[in-house]
Amino acid sequence: MDVRLLGRVDYAPTYAAMQDFTSTRTAATPDVLWVCEHPPVFTQGLAGQAGHVLVPGDIPVVATNRGGQVTYHGPGQVVAYPLIDLKRAGYFVKEYVYRLEEAVIRTLAHYGVTGHRVAGAPGIYVRLDNPGSHTLLEQRPQKGAATGAPDFTGLGKIAALGIKVSRNCTYHGLALNVAMDLEPYSRINPCGYAGLQSIDLSTIGISADWADVASVLSHKLLTHLKP
Fold it and tell me: Which residues belong to the active site?
């Protein structure tokens, strides 16, 4: 898979480029990973409810065709867009999401941070009182368990996922918070959850360069998205 570091790019034209790439690709088109950051923008998923955008202020809100609710993108966040032919890769959407999350968890581990999955809430979360703790969460996903309302007690969300699959091909992707101005998250209910705290590596005491995190995350994605 080819990795393209796009730098800081506006969201709308990047979204349009993903759509164009996916609609025109063929069975022979190589997969690619786009890595970038965006100027401040709120993006709404297909399930997005206007009521979850509280006070957008001067930050634009862009409607998209990805899954999920509203989230925020801004400087200091590594955004990764894997454009993959799942049929050729040989795995389905549920496993694809698992692999994305695993790449984030392994990236966080590189910096001494333990990432966690929460039942019923895609994305990666960190213990606020002890970001390095390996103790399993009670609210972790468990096979065969009924999924009720997600429980975010004691957690902060450090990475968000939102994907689209068209003709077995993926676009959109994930965002990992490195060193951001987190204030815009207070203007929304992140991912549709009122009161969900969003954090970044800087907030939990990890000083990491954006380019370094982008490199580590790219490597982990290449490893975990292999056919």
Answer: 191
